[in-house]
TrEMBL record:
UniProt protein name: GTPase-activating Rap/Ran-GAP domain-like protein 3
GO molecular-function term, one example from the UniProt record: GTPase activator activity
Keywords: GTPase activation
One of the GO biological process terms: regulation of small GTPase mediated signal transduction
Limits of the CNH domain: 437-736
Pfam families, sorted: CNH (PF00780), Rap_GAP (PF02145)
Organism: Mola mola
Similarity comment text for this entry: Belongs to the GARNL3 family.
PANTHER family documented for this protein: GTPASE-ACTIVATING RAP_RAN-GAP DOMAIN-LIKE PROTEIN 3 (PTHR15711:SF62), RAP GTPASE-ACTIVATING PROTEIN (PTHR15711)
Occurrences of domain Rap-GAP (ranges): 148-355
Keyword Cell cycle: no
Length: 736
């Protein structure tokens, strides 16, 4: 696969009002230390990531902090937010401050001293603000947090929409390109590389301006989630086609209003034939010509990743990573051009002035504290301790509710949205069958359906009445995971010495259901058995999916580490070639021996994935961390109780750092296990550790992405109350 980019760090050519980088060795030597034929994956990273730039969401929202309002010497209103926080989870306190002005925002970090209290005046002085028309006063109304979140959020910062235009060989005008009703086989493979085909009607995820109710913008589209960002692709051949309209206005309405458009042009001479002027759009700033070039409008700042020389990718996953990162970085860079920057500044100025006008009537009331240059205190004054604690508790409660709503909506900077169930609110249930006659052993969502394993009727797909049988009763499934992005179903079937792990392709199962083939039996699944897993009584997979799927199978006190060899695109190619069983895509890595059989397991991804991945295991009266590479064990948590009922260990990630929610008896205990020091995790007590208790002992606890937990206890439905925490936003118990 070839790709040439117009706006990395390489030497720049001119193409009208557009730049183009062609990945030649001359470009590379002129501007970087690349050598022809080399490629470094470390160069492929998202620039200006939102969890660094959206400070208010990360460090302030849902936590105790202070907000101030005032007017500068030019009588323009400004706002200041200050919080005392932990410095990079190293138990070193520091102040973080955000100054909001019409010209933009300024963020600084200031050291904390227990002997010298920092004042608002000194913070503003550090931001070069020493003169005021009206001195700053504290805002106590907790609703101010909603305005802060709105002011910080900007277009293109979390979710993105990109155009994809298919062009046949020799087509030189946009009317010709937009008039292609269908694409080629190679174009379809390219779309499979970009993401998954989703049905628009009823779609509850990010829609990118497409109609999800009446099919007016097509039946299907291409969608994916990449590093916490939802991406929707406006594909020309999937948008409505009109024989009467030669200009295909409906297609141009979407793709012509995308900042970044991919042009997939067939033919060997696509490099010299395509020109940005062929596409009549005043809004599109970047064209990515898949086989040869990416053009950028001249005003777009340079952005990476730089293209290797020669611009050839032999690994499909590396090509996909490069392309998606390049597209996201390109749109972010475009938003810094004068056209978009001036629009953003006008919007911010209007928002600040509007809020100031709303606060003016309350300048002499309780909403604004008259202490104009009050100290920024980590604790409230003793004289008003109870009143202040009640105010702070309400402030935190409103902030956490707003944070949860933002995460569930998919607008959080690190949202990890899924395409399965629970897309509206985490606690909203969906009824699949009100009179299901069998006891469910385990289940997982598959698209908008539920795949459920029963005790006596095999595995059923619940999405309509009557339920459809996928496996007969000879397959006694005890655990399962549906991995739609990987096109995999993983199950643990049978018990005792006959237990094994099985892996199936979802497409193969779906095809069998559509063609109404015979229900699969245990005998039919012999080719789907994973090697060396006989006798497996428990397994776990990594939920924080990187480029490699990992499985750990427990056979008594022995752990088997298994990984998937094939990348996403190679797996799709294997399906196309007719390989129904994915077993050959998995490889056995190593074996680790424990002192006792584990009762609960969870895989923890290290920050680099190189010798720092861990396995959390629970046995006896303790939770331990096991290094996947060395087998070394580290004590994570000891349970001080006569009897222990282990429930779950759930890996939780915040900004790439790992933590574990350890669940046993009535207790859930959160413990951060990062940063890692080489292969040794730092698991000593941390200020971020906390625990809470259930008022009934749960049978199982699961996570609803990105952070809330679902706890299940048959016959009961209750909300377990505890003091709000800045780590877990919401936990619920649900009836199944």
């Amino acid at each position: 696969k070839n790709l040439i980019s117009s706006d990395a760090d390489g030497a720049i050519q001119r193409a009208g009002r557009f730049r183009v980088e062609n990945g030649s060795s001359d470009e590379v030597h002129a501007t970087s230390d690349y050598t022809p034929g080399t490629w470094r994956r470390t160069d492929v990273h998202l620039e200006n990531p939102e969890y660094h730039t959206r400070w208010f969401f990360k460090y302030f929202l849902g936590k105790v902090h202070q907000n101030y309002v005032g007017t500068d010497a030019e009588k323009n209103p400004f706002y200041l937010s200050v919080v005392l926080s932990d410095q990079n989870n190293q138990r070193v306190p520091q102040y973080r401050a955000i100054l909001w002005r019409k010209s933009g925002t300024l963020k600084i970090s200031l050291p904390y001293s227990p002997t010298k209290t920092l004042s608002v005046k000194s913070i503003l002085s550090a931001m070069n603000m020493d003169r005021f028309e009206r001195g700053p006063r504290e805002i106590l109304n907790p609703e101010i947090q909603k305005v802060r979140v709105t002011a910080e959020r900007r277009p293109g910062s979390v979710n993105f929409k990109f155009g994809v235009l298919y062009a046949k060989e020799g087509q030189l005008t946009d009317d010709e390109m937009f008039s292609n009703e269908t694409g080629s086989e190679s174009f379809d493979k390219f779309l499979s590389l970009l993401g998954d085909a989703i049905t628009l009607q009823g779609w509850a995820g990010y829609r990118g301006g497409l109609d999800t109710k009446n099919d007016t913008t097509g039946i299907k589209s291409i969608y994916t989630v990449y590093q916490g960002h939802e991406l929707m692709f406006h594909v020309s051949t999937m948008l409505p086609y009109s024989k009467e309209n030669k200009q295909q206005v409906e297609r141009k309405r979407h793709i012509g209003n995308d900042i970044v458009t991919i042009v997939f042009q067939e033919g060997d001479d696509a490099s010299s034939s395509f020109k940005p002027s062929m596409i009549r759009s005043h809004f599109t700033h970047i064209f990515a010509l898949v086989r040869l070039k990416i053009f950028s409008e001249e005003s777009v700042p340079l952005f990476g990743p730089p293209l290797p020389s020669p611009p050839v990718f032999t690994d499909h996953q590396e090509f996909r990573d490069f392309l998606l990162v390049k597209l996201i970085n390109g749109e972010k860079a475009t938003l810094e051009t004068p056209t978009f920057a001036q629009k953003r500044q006008r919007t911010l100025d209007m928002l600040i002035r509007s809020l100031y006008q709303d606060l003016m009537p309350d300048l002499h009331k309780n909403m604004l504290n008259r202490r104009s240059f009050s100290d920024v205190l980590p604790e409230s004054p003793k004289s008003a301790r109870k009143k202040e604690e009640a105010r702070q508790a309400e402030f935190v409660r409103i902030g956490q509710a707003l944070k949860l709503k933002t995460i569930v909506r998919g607008d959080a900077p690190t949202s990890l949205v899924t395409t399965g169930l629970c897309r509206k609110e985490p606690w909203e249930s969906q009824s699949f069958c009100s009179t299901f006659p069998y006891e469910i052993v385990c289940a997982d969502s598959w698209g908008q359906s539920l795949l459920a394993a029963t005790d006596t009727a095999g595995v059923m797909l619940l999405d309509a009445l009557p339920p459809v049988q996928v496996f007969d009763k000879t397959m006694l499934v005890k655990q399962m995971h549906v991995l739609e992005p990987q096109d995999l179903l993983i199950t643990r079937a049978d018990k005792g010495k006959d237990a094994r792990l099985y892996v199936f392709r979802l497409r193969t199962l779906r095809r069998g259901l559509e063609e109404k083939q015979l229900v699969r039996s245990k005998c039919d699944s012999r080719e789907n058995k994973l090697e060396k897993t006989k006798g497996c009584h428990l397994y776990s997979i990594n939920t924080h999916h990187g480029s490699e799927l990992r499985i750990v199978a427990a056979i008594r006190n022995k752990l088997l580490l298994i990984t998937r060899k094939h990348s996403r695109f190679e797996a799709l190619s294997a399906v196309a070639s007719g390989a129904d069983s994915p077993v050959e895509e998995f490889q056995y890595i190593r074996e680790i021996c424990l002192c006792d059989p584990p009762v609960v397991m969870a895989l923890v991804d290290g920050p680099t994935g190189e010798n720092d991945n861990m396995i959390c295991v629970a046995y006896k009266h303790q939770f331990d961390l096991i290094n996947e590479s060395t087998g070394d064990a580290y004590r994570l948590h000891h349970v001080d109780a006569n009897r222990v009922n282990f429930v779950a260990a759930i890996d939780v990630y915040e900004d790439g750092e790992a933590g574990l929610l350890l669940c046993y008896n009535y207790i859930c205990y959160y413990k951060k296990v990062c940063p890692f020091n080489g292969s040794t995790p730092m698991i000593q007590s941390n200020t971020s550790d906390f625990s809470f208790s259930w008022n009934q002992m749960p049978n199982a606890i699961g996570r609803l992405q990105p952070r809330p937990c679902l706890c299940c206890q048959p016959g009961r439905s209750l909300l377990s109350p505890w003091k709000p925490s800045n780590r877990l936003t919401c936990v619920i118990i649900c009836v199944l």
